[in-house]
Amino acid sequence: MEIILWSVIALIGFVGSVGMIAAAVALVKS
Q: What sections of the protein cross the membrane (predicted)?
């Protein structure tokens, strides 16, 4: 059960990181 929890946390962190990078790129290109 803990493995699933950590996987979800890691996934959310990964998606958040990608989102922040995408936002930064969009900001620079605008």
A: 6-28
Q: Name the pTM for this structure.
A: 0.58
List Cα–Cα distances, 10 to 2, 14, 16, 23, in angstroms: 12, 6, 10, 20
What does the block give as tokens for 21? 């990078």
Placement of tokens 């059960």 in the chain: 1
Residue type, 25: V
Q: What is the DSSP string of 7-23?
A: HHHHHHHHHHHHHHHHH
- What average pLDDT score do residues 14-19 get? 97
